[in-house]
Amino acid sequence: MDFSSMASQAGGSNPKMPTEKFMYHFKSQMEQAYAQKFIETLGRKCFDKCVTKPGSSLGGSESSCVSRCVDRYIEATGIVGRALFKANQ
Amino acid sequence: MDPSSVDSAEVQRFLIQEKEKAMMNEMVAKLTSVCWDKCITSTPGSKFSSGESACLSNCGQRYLDLSLIIMKRIQSMQ
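ok -> structure tokens follow
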């Protein structure tokens, strides 16, 4: 499920919950969903780049490729994100 | 109106903000995925080459330009 539809759905839940608690709970759910999706994406991207022919175990070069890939993808997210914000100004 | 209920105006404002944040995050995520595929063609290194980071930055901005052209085109058809 994508974030924006989660946000829409959560609008109708539990009308008796105090506002502060609801907002805190909601935010942490959204953050968890984002983190989970990000980790899934990292898995796909780095598997593609680093494990070209799956063997009977992950080799040393494959493992270090995955570490670098994670760092680079996080960096790429920052670069693309900043490019979008600059353009909006 | 019960000020602690989820239907309050404050909560509605909050949800609108959260939805906007979520949509922004979604857009950055999708764009990063597309731009990564376009720009990072070899095995990831311990840092980006200047070509790779320029490509990533350009990719984001060009996609925005493209979206604008598409919108204008569709509008001109109506």
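Helices of chain A lie at 3-10, 19-50, 60-87.
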